[in-house]
Amino acid sequence: MADAPCEPERLILGVDPGLNITGYGILRVVPAGFELVEAGVVRTRQRGSMGDRLKELHAGIADVVKSFAPATMALEELYSHYARPRTSILMGHARGVICLAAAQHDVPIVNYAATQVKRILTGNGRAPKTQMQDAICREFGLLAPPEPPDVADALAIALCHHYLGSKAA
Fold it and tell me: What is the CATH number of the domain that holds 39?
């Protein structure tokens, strides 16, 4: 009897977008659930033109996408607070180049609200960063929370996509 063909490896890239620091986390979906492949940040210089910073961010995320060829990118949705419109605009620029990097490599993007990610992992849509880091430590069996917190957020977004599966697509 011939062996059944192996299903190709499925990687999920979670991204917590930011202009200064963008967190990313890559999960491999395995029969037993998931495993952590890599996590880190793409940093841009805090000084310099907007164009140069966006170019650095795009190059960093494009490098991650090229290196791992994820099946999906799970990306945090843009959140706008009326008291900080400038932050929302800067985040929109960052998300734009992140989406471009995914599109250039034919990686589909699924968006998640931060409150949805927090609710799925902690049961509380308004969970503080420390509670999210604790949840990531628990889920991955980590002894210490990932630093900076943007890494834990990116892993949480990827994990949310894994838990929701095709319902989110």
Answer: 3.30.420.10
